[in-house]
């Protein structure tokens, strides 16, 4: 039985009108305990406030019933053992094994994979020690000061986001750079900042066949050889992270210079594996372990906590309520934290590549919406750009605010103002400002009745716009690990309820194939006629202008 046929879902649909009839203002004025009822703790460092959503305890109970009816408990358990969630690629999804303690057990075809994980972690640790201690020397005997991660998607976004988020912990004397794009401008910018003799390139690619990564890696190798002049020195400056040992060796990186992960780790769930090497190198291995520990704590929370108190489960159920019942198909994520500026981009891959699907696990078209459009920006910047739409736009966008009570940056006044702004935005979205309030304010400013009547409609904010606030004590490696894992699990639970495979990404393949052909067409001198008129026309114009 699909989502739409579930009795609990039908009940939820029946509740919609009544729920929408009650505004957030009314809900809060009728219930002084609303925050206490809907705010859930995660350990001692994090809490998530769901009170500003268009829901009630009855809706929450029905959503939990829906999850039970759809066997969510069994699916969660399967995330920690043999599963075939990624059935279209014949693969398991076992990223939880990547942050299991050494004595943990996650079985794949009867074999515990946790020892494999810890074997690789030990290799990463030893390698980090060599580089950080200065034992690992470049071709002219100098130590390494810069690492350049060459990878894209899941082989870029996680480590790039985390190293920036935890920049204040970068005390290993090693800078991280990231090259992902097919636009050579990014590689050129990075190369202009580094010294070949003191740089380590990490070629990161699960498949080791992604065109962007291979093109950038070849160009980086050519640049390195031009500077060094000795191909035998490549081994001191290039390592790889991949599941594809033969392709790594074909590229010219020896087996002992490759850090392995496994096909049961999806690219967008891989930052906990060797893909996190830039994190461990720049922050130190101990901090990488704290990141893993935070993620593992969230795994345990997912596994043992009742649905009612389970934060990722509640996040996912709320999105089902907002998307499939209330019809709100976009989610805005707003970290009030400058160093989390890549977090929305990270979440876009995590959620949209996972749940942007229109076919269910039985190969049939789904009859309901699935993955939302996820977007966002750090606060307060977003306030001066697009928050106008959040407050008065004709589409309602549920918002997720992320804030930290303490900042490690020593600007207490900034931080107070930052958090004040975050709280203000959530309050303004929820409660707005009605006509009478606006009119009273304008009159107090000395406007005449006619002027008030003219201006007031533009200043009215209906409010009643939902948001969730995630509050942590501080942005530590542990908390960040937990936060990321929380969103991973939200994504997974959504996929279970939508009955889709959250772990494949067939939709990106066609574009890759077409690009290969179009790249050839662009290189050819012949007039291109093989495509539609738009593509042919654009190719002609590109060729014309590229000759100028
Ligand atoms: O094209 C999409 C994708 O396969 C992502 O799922 C993945 O994270 C990214 O490309 C990079 O893939 P790889 O790590 O194999 O280079």
Architecture overview:
The protein has 548 residues and is an alpha/beta fold. The chain has helices at 7-20, 24-30, 34-38, 57-69, 72-78, 114-133, 157-165, 184-191, 211-228, 245-251, 277-283, 285-304, 311-325, 343-355, 387-392, 412-431, 435-444, 449-459, 477-498, 509-523, 533-546, and strands spanning 39-42, 46-49, 107-108, 111-112, 146-150, 175-179, 199-204, 238-242, 258-260, 330-335, 373-376, 399-404, 467-472. The strands form 3 sheets. It has a 6-stranded mixed beta sheet, with helices on both faces. A hairpin with a 3-residue loop joins strand 1 (39-42) and strand 2 (46-49). The relative contact order is 0.13. The model has no long low-confidence stretch (mean pLDDT 97). The site of 6-O-phosphono-beta-D-fructofuranose (F6P) has 14 residues, from loops. 6-O-phosphono-beta-D-fructofuranose binds next to loops. Pathway: Carbohydrate biosynthesis; gluconeogenesis; Carbohydrate degradation; glycolysis; D-glyceraldehyde 3-phosphate and glycerone phosphate from D-glucose: step 2/4. This is Glucose-6-phosphate isomerase. It is found in: Cytoplasm.
List descriptors.
five-stranded parallel beta sheet; alpha/beta; 548 residues
What is this structure's SSE topology?
Layout: H1 7-20, H2 24-30, H3 34-38, E1 39-42, E2 46-49, H4 57-69, H5 72-78, E3 107-108, E4 111-112, H6 114-133, E5 146-150, H7 157-165, E6 175-179, H8 184-191, E7 199-204, H9 211-228, E8 238-242, H10 245-251, E9 258-260, H11 277-283, H12 285-304, H13 311-325, E10 330-335, H14 343-355, E11 373-376, H15 387-392, E12 399-404, H16 412-431, H17 435-444, H18 449-459, E13 467-472, H19 477-498, H20 509-523, H21 533-546
Parallel strand pairs: 5-6, 5-7, 7-8, 8-9, 10-11, 10-12, 12-13
Antiparallel strand pairs: 1-2, 2-13, 3-4
Organism: Oceanisphaera marina
Main location: cytoplasm
Pfam families: PGI (PF00342)
